[in-house]
Each structure stands twice: as C-alpha cells, then as structure tokens.
Amino acid sequence: MTDSFQESPVSSFKSELEKLAQGISMIIENGSEEEHRRLFTLLQSRRVLGFLETWEKRERRRDPRHSCAIPVTCATDDRIFEDLIRDISAGGAFIETSEAFLPGEDITLTFSSPDLEHPIKIKGKVMWRASQGIGVKFETARKELQAMILSL
Fold it and tell me: What is the domain count for the chain?
C-alpha cells in the first residue's frame, strides 16, 4: 500500500500563483515594451491591480478594523460636513464621502458612541481617496477610542 500525497486546494492555488508570478516576472524582465503594456492592460482589466492595492492597504494596517455606520462631523481648514464612518480601528477610519480630498490633507473628526459620555474629537490625515470615500490615519490613538471600538 502506497501513501499518495494530495495537495490541499489552498496549496494548489499557492503553487499555481507562484507559477503565474514567475511567468509575469519573466515578461517584466525579458519582454518588450509592447508585451509590458499588454500584460499591464490584462492585469488592469481583470481588476488584479485593484485587488493588489486593496490587499496591500489591508496588510499595512496594524489595528483590526470594525465595520460600522457612525455619523461623523468632518472639518478641514475651509469646510465642515457630515458623513459616515464605515470602518474604524484605533489607528484610522474609512469615511464614506463624496467630498473632494487630497492625500496629506489634515482633517478633524468628531463622533460619538452610546457607550461614551462625551464625543470623541480626533485629528487625522487623509491617506488615500477612493470613489466611495477616504482613508484617514489618526494622529494619536486614544483610550476612549480603543474602548469604543471594542464595544462595536
């Protein structure tokens, strides 16, 4: 009786992805400019680049994010508006907004939770902009914020 090794679906996918990455690397290293352009177009059209960008953002996060729908007042140097925090961590938040922002822009957020006596007012910086909203990194993590996030 011989034991046969059967790859799990996950390791099979990993093996296939490694082969694919090797092929892509060969095209990048040895391909013509036209082949580079074609590869880029294929990757972009299949939304691979968007997936990679989302994955990289998630991997850079130090704190776990929690989905939510918290009303927030956002203030910049020249405007104030109301929007929704859609996910939050001790280090930052995603705010659903149609307002125009630039990465690097300073922003002050004010929001509350039923579990807290006073609203939280925290300064942050816009790190990125997507069609649905902005990613904000908080300047400092506060204990009240961490407690509120754990209660969500």
Answer: 2
Per-residue pLDDT tens listing for the chain (152 residues): 444 445 455 567 778 878 888 888 888 889 899 988 888 888 777 677 677 776 666 556 566 678 889 999 999 988 999 999 999 888 889 999 998 888 899 999 999 877 777 788 889 999 988 888 999 998 876 666 776 666 65
- Please check whether residues 26 and 51 belong to one and the same domain: yes
Is residue 4 one of the residues assigned to a domain?
A: no
- Candidates 135, 141, 150; CA nearest to 57 is 135
The rounded distance, in Å, linking the Cα atoms of 102 and 135 is 11
- Residues 88 and 126 occupy one common structural domain: yes
Q: What are the start-end ranges of the H helices in the chain?
A: 9-30, 33-45, 48-60, 143-151
Please indicate, yes or no, whether residues 48 and 91 belong to a single structural domain of this protein: no
Q: What CA–CA distance (Å, rounded) separates 84 from 5?
A: 51
Residue-range definition of the domain harbouring residue 97: 66-151
Residues 6 or more apart whose CB falls under 8 angstroms from that of 118 comprise: 112
